[in-house]
Amino acid sequence: MLGLFCGRLLTTLEPPHLDLTGKVAIITGGNSGIGLQIALDLARQGATVYLACRNVFKAEEATWESLNTTIDLLFHNAGVGSEQAGQKFSADGFPIFYATNFLGSFLVTYLLESYLSSDARIILTSSVGQYASSFSSNFSLSSIKESSEPGYHVPAARIKAGKPIPDAVVYGQTKAMQVAFAKLLQNLFDRKAAELGIQSRRIAHAFSPGLTFTPLFSKTPEKTFLEDPAFWLLKLTNNTLSTDVSQGAATGVWLACTNDKAVIGEGMGGGYWDRMTRRASKVDIMSRETVERFWVRWEADAGVEWR
Question: Which of 68, 93, 98, 126 is deepest in the core (most CB within 10 A)?
């Protein structure tokens, strides 16, 4: 949390340079900000990088089949920080935050699973905003459209208060889901490997970039402190306290390149990282039943069965 507002005062993160020649990476939301920086850093180390930007998710599976290659690094970085005017729900009827920041990542990973290399790494750009999330233990397991479900898309307490829901609150819900996805995806990888009698070499992790100077806040509508105090403060201090985008991307790049056993060792996947250090997350204090409930809901919303 210290790095959120004091990132410029902390030591510079320097991920080790690793020869990634022959490695293939896909990065969603890679046309600007942290995604673009990750793409540049990986390309400088020899990786072949594909940028998956908006409106191409449905084409991913067919496109990859035609390329006839495997994926070594899959970065889920696409996201929005606010609802745009007149765009409360996606074309499929899901809240735009949920569809863009999380559900697309779940579906794309499902579609590309068979193309992942045996030691693929799936990395999700989360946020310290995940600490502010709050989920009901009995949120619906069925898909809900054209509505924001209390206790799932938004904290139930916020709905009961009867006040407008700040973007920062809804954003935090989706960022917690990314952390939960890393944990549950790792469980899936480990279980499938165990069924084959081998050790899983695929890993999934989520990380926070901290307060980083990116276009995220320039795309958010102007709001007052009373409307959205968290985003108001972050936007106010973005030019003065935020770190360079290279520092925001550093932990993600490190997770992609490092051979540290704390990252790739047996039983070490599914973590949440900040400044190249593993941290406890909000998901860690949720009950196992609540965390596993997410997967069932995601399957329903994505229209897939993934076990």
Answer: 126
DSSP string, the chain: -HHHHHGGGSPPP-PPP---TT-EEEEETTTSHHHHHHHHHHHHTT-EEEEE-TT-GGGHHHHHHHHT--EEEEEE----SSPPTT-SB-TTSSBHHHIIIIIHHHHHHHHHGGGEEEEEEEEEE--GGGGG----TT--SS---SSPPBTTTB-HHHHHHTSPPPHHHHHHHHHHHHHHHHHHHHHHHHHHHHHTTS----EEEEEE--SB-STTGGGSPP--TTT-HHHHHHHHHHHHHPBPHHHHHHHHHHHHH---HHHHSTT--SEEEETTEEE--GGGGS-HHHHHHHHHHHHHHHT----
